Amino acid sequence: MSQTYLPTLKQLQYLVSLREHGHFGRAAEACFVTQSTLSAGIRELETLIGIVLVERTRRVVRFTPLGDQIVAKARRVLREAEELSDLARAAGRPLSGEMRMSVIPTIAPFMLPKILPRLRRDWPDLKLFLREEPSAAACEGLQHGRTDCVLLALPYACGDVEMAPLFDDALYVAGLAGEIGHSTGSITADAIDEGRLLLLEDGHCLKDHALAACNRPELRAEATMLGTSLHTMVQMVDNGLGVTMLPRMAIDAGILDGTDVEARPLEADNPARRIALVWRKASPREKDFRLLAELLGQSDPNGARNHRAR
């Protein structure tokens, strides 16, 4: 009976990393190995199965059609292997070991500084690796096993996931006093000048949440979408370039400090986004994720201080 040689998990990791980065050097860096080690591992894999998976040229790394199929299968194998470790971890102490969490940019700088010190203090055995990225990339990473859970804002289609809603994060209209008026009341969606509205560029789900809350189709066509971050948006508003939408958590975190910008609640049918933690269905670490969600939910901005939000 002939001996069967199977691919190693390390070889599959090298292959998946090369597919994700499209460059041998960056893929090797992501795997914490040298480029020659990664290249040799992939060549060994190709020799083992007797098929070329990657076409190598000086400028381009191109996967063959079969190579793409192997990558898809390799991702599933690696995810299953990780879940073997998760099973053992879940049977031990709660919130211990490594956990990779992706957080979207309109949440990370405002929510994490409040919760991370407490996590480090109360759960010292948890090694939380954070990755800040837009919703689409975060959800893709979750499905491919690159990340274990995602902290994001709903509504957003993140695939076949389990979720734990944390709290609702109200939306505010932010502008100079002369632009949004001196009243202390809320601002209706109809009162927003579409020609003066500044929003985050495509790829940020807060833009879609703001437009959906206003329920004014013309805003999508007329609004200027160019901000790369909420801090950039605030600086543009402070310079008199228009008005924007901000989530309450950003205001409570002091994003308006040092500016002349004021914020007033948006009056609309759904004037908020819902913050949630999501993870893959049937994950053996579900109890950990639900416990983490409970802790994250304690940073609900409804009980926090309010900086110049009228």
UniProtKB/TrEMBL annotation:
CDD domains in the record: PBP2_OxyR
Q: Which organism is it from?
A: Sphingomonas gilva
What does the sequence similarity comment in the record state about its family? Belongs to the LysR transcriptional regulatory family.
Top-rank taxon: Bacteria
Q: What InterPro entries does the annotation carry?
A: LysR_HTH_N (IPR000847), LysR_subst-bd (IPR005119), WH-like_DNA-bd_sf (IPR036388), WH_DNA-bd_sf (IPR036390)
What protein name does the entry list? Answer: Hydrogen peroxide-inducible genes activator
Carries keyword RNA-binding? no
GO molecular function terms attached to this record: DNA binding; DNA-binding transcription factor activity
Q: Which residues form the HTH lysR-type domain?
A: 7-64
| Database matches in PROSITE patterns | HTH_LYSR
- What Pfam families does the record point to? HTH_1, LysR_substrate
Keywords in UniProt for this one?
Answer: DNA-binding, Transcription, Transcription regulation
What GO cellular component entries does it have?
Answer: protein-DNA complex
